[in-house]
Amino acid sequence: MIRIGISGIISYILINKYGVIILKILEIIKGLFSGSKSDKDKMLSFKVKCKKCSNTNEIKVLKTYDIATVYEDDQPGNYRLKKYVVCPDCYNKIHLEIFFDKRYKILSSECNNGELLD
Ligand SMILES: [Zn+2]
């Protein structure tokens, strides 16, 4: 009776341990599947107003292509976007530089010859 009781407890602990491991595996699999995100999650879009002709242009960038990881400690963010935008109406060159945090929230931005709209 006592032996069965002990092995019962041990197998209960084992099941619990494996239960946790299985949950971890499920989490990893879930992570893999959420890795195949839709294009919307891979893209960021901004509205930039041209200073010369006041035309508002929408800019779409790919997170993986246009946005670089910041390695320097003196820079204000985790990611940086540097982009030259040519206004399609007046060919004004707008220089855009934006710093983001890990969640792609804008921390600071600079826009020459234009204005970044919210
Ligand atoms: Zn313009």
Coarse structural class:
alpha+beta
User: Radius of gyration, rounded?
Assistant: 25 Å
Instruction: Point out poorly predicted stretches.
Output: none
**Small-molecule binders:** zinc ion
Count up the helices. 3
Number of domains: 2
The largest beta-sheet arranges its strands as: 3-4-5-6
Q: Average pLDDT value?
A: 83
Plain-language structure description:
The chain is an alpha+beta fold and 118 residues long. The protein folds into two domains: 1-36; 39-117, no CATH class. It is 35% helix and 38% strand. The protein has three helices and seven strands, in the order H-H-E-E-H-E-E-E-E-E. It has a four-stranded antiparallel beta sheet with strand order 3-4-5-6. A three-stranded antiparallel beta sheet has the order 2-1-7. Residues 50, 52-53, 55, 87, 89-90, 92 line the site of zinc ion.
Structural features:
118 residues, alpha+beta, 2 domains, four-stranded antiparallel β-sheet, three-stranded antiparallel β-sheet, 35% helix, binds zinc ion
Put the structure in a nutshell.
The protein is of the alpha+beta class.
SSE layout:
Elements (H helix, E strand, L loop, with lengths): L1 H33 L4 H4 E8 L5 E7 H4 E3 L9 E8 L6 E8 L5 E7 L1 E4 L1
Bound molecules: zinc ion (ZN).
